[in-house]
């Protein structure tokens, strides 16, 4: 967050706080990098020390840490909720995007290590894996900002008599669904 002082046309000044980072983007980038930095550095040191060949420690540490985060940390978060209280995921769309990418990451890891080039990570596989992270962040940001789905949700479309032109009409909001 950052404080910005604005001057109104009448000469009066007002100070307001604005967010510099989108919460979803900062959680996926800064927090992930900060929490995974020890495993990444350990893996890099091992690779550099073994003539750019991965040993047992680096990849095992990264996969083990990811599995620990996926299962144990989530279990602890669920378990510490006091009896009789309920919590909910604040941004369900973002949760589904990141959950899908987490599952995809494990499938992709299996594919590159066991199917495409068993036991060896080729350069194109590494670059494609690196490219997946910004794609994940952008898709999570799109889900957070609701840029794709909600734009078309409450509109009805019909075609003209010749089925040549699509005509957009406003639809009524379904009863029982709240839009925020």
From TrEMBL:
Domain Sodium/calcium exchanger membrane region: 19-141
PANTHER family per UniProt: SODIUM/CALCIUM EXCHANGER (PTHR11878), SODIUM_CALCIUM EXCHANGER 3 (PTHR11878:SF7)
GO cellular component: axon; endomembrane system; postsynapse; sarcolemma
GO molecular function: calcium:sodium antiporter activity
Subcellular localization(s) per the UniProt record: Endomembrane system
Topology of this chain in the membrane: Multi-pass membrane protein
Major subcellular site: membrane
Protein's gene: SLC8A3
InterPro entries: CaCA (IPR051171), Na_Ca_Ex_C-exten (IPR032452), NaCa_Exmemb (IPR004837), NCX_ion-bd_dom_sf (IPR044880)
Keywords: Antiport, Calcium, Calcium transport, Ion transport, Membrane, Transmembrane, Transmembrane helix, Transport
Transmembrane portions of the chain: 62-82, 94-117, 123-143
Highest taxon listed in the record's lineage: Eukaryota
Pfam family, one: Na_Ca_ex_C
Protein name: Solute carrier family 8 member 3
Annotated organism of origin: Leptolalax maoershanensis
Record-annotated Sodium/calcium exchanger domain positions: 145-179
GO biological process, one term: calcium ion import across plasma membrane
């Amino acid at each position: 967050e950052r404080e910005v002082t604005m001057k109104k046309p009448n000469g009066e000044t007002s100070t307001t706080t604005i967010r510099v980072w989108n919460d979803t983007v900062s959680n996926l980038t800064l927090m992930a990098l900060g929490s995974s930095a020890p495993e990444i550095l350990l893996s890099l040191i091992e690779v550099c020390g073994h003539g750019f060949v991965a040993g047992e420690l680096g990849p095992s540490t990264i996969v083990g840490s990811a599995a620990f985060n996926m299962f144990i940390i989530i279990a602890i978060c669920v378990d510490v909720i006091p009896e009789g209280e309920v919590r909910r995921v604040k941004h369900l769309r973002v949760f589904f995007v990141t959950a899908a990418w987490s599952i995809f990451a494990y499938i992709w890891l299996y594919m590159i290590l066991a199917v495409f080039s068993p036991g060896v990570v080729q350069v194109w596989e590494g670059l494609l894996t690196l490219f997946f992270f910004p794609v994940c962040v952008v898709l999570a940001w799109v889900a957070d900002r609701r840029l794709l789905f909600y734009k078309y949700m409450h509109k009805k479309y019909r075609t003209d008599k010749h089925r040549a032109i699509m005509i957009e009409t406003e639809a009524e909001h379904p009863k029982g669904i709240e839009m925020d």
